[in-house]
Amino acid sequence: MPANPHGIAKLATEHFLAYYARSHAYQYDVYRIGNPYGPRQRGSRRQGVVAVWMAQILRGQPVVVYGDESVLRDYIYVEDAAALMAHSLHDVTSSGVFNVGSGRGTSIRELFELVSRIVDLPVHGQFKHSRAFDNRSIVLNPDRLYALTPSVRLRSLEEGLGVTWAWYRDNLMQA
Fold first, then answer.
1. What are 69-101's pLDDT values in tens digits?
2. CA-based Rg of the chain, rounded to a whole angstrom?
3. CA pair distance 38, 171, nearest whole angstrom
4. What phi-psi label fits residue 40: left (phi over 0), alpha (psi between -120 and 50 degrees) or beta?
5. What residues does 125 pair with on adjacent strands?
6. CA 21 to chain centre
7. What are the backbone angles phi and psi of residue 66, rounded to the nearest 5°?
8. What CATH code is carried by the domain that includes residue 96?
9. Distance between CA atoms of 7 and 63, rounded to whole angstroms?
10. Beta carbons of 26 and 73 less than 8 angstroms apart
11. 174, CA 20 to 30 Å: which among 21, 32, 42, 92?
């Protein structure tokens, strides 16, 4: 049950695809991606907490943290998400809806502490209450997709954040 208009629109699209598939013997894949992060994500937008935080750190601004230990998200490194989604190119017989994530919930506070340890600059947090539109917990069950892609190795959050930070640090003008 989606909690906001964005989720409702995505679910409606899935239902339209399923209808079309039944009506026209059509194969399709839907990938429900957790919170992807990695190099090249624009840090000047409101989405993508990792990119936003890294851009704020590089600008010497405080990192704005909405929520606490109860706000959980499923973070996945963008290249890992792409490797999992490449499944569609190799196996058209197992189409359907797939969750793409780590399967692990990381609190926003835990993410802040991890980023603070990884970066080589001072990090100042500005902690605020969760916003009304924030979901409390989004953790995906990716087991169905993992069973179809056993050769894909997911990076740990710490490893992915390290690679992401190195890119942001080296490409300050693009952040």
1. 788 999 999 999 999 999 888 887 788 899 999
2. 18
3. 13
4. left
5. 63
6. 28
7. -95, 115
8. 3.90.25.10
9. 27
10. no
11. 32
User: How many structural domains does the chain have?
Assistant: 1
CB 90 within 8 A of CB 52: no
Pairwise CA distance, residues 77 & 80, whole Å: 5
C-alpha 12/C-alpha 5 separation (Å) is 10
Task: Give the Cα separation of 154 and 169 in Å (integer).
Answer: 23
Residue 22 is assigned to a structural domain of this protein: no
- Both tokens of 41, joined, read 């994500």
pLDDT (tens digit per residue) in 2-14: 777 888 999 999 9
Six token digits for residue 3: 């909690």
10 in a structural domain = no
Q: Where are the beta strands (DSSP E) in the chain?
A: 29-33, 35-37, 63-66, 72-73, 75-77, 96-100, 106-107, 125-128, 137-138
Is residue 20 a contact partner of residue 12, using CB atoms and an 8 Å limit? no
The whole-number pLDDT of residue 58 equals: 92
In whole angstroms, give the CA distance from residue 11 to residue 171.
36
Tokens at residue 152, please? 């894909």
Structure tokens of 118?
């990884």
Beta-carbon-side half-sphere exposure of residue 63 (alpha carbons within 13 Å): 27
Residue 26 lies in a domain: no
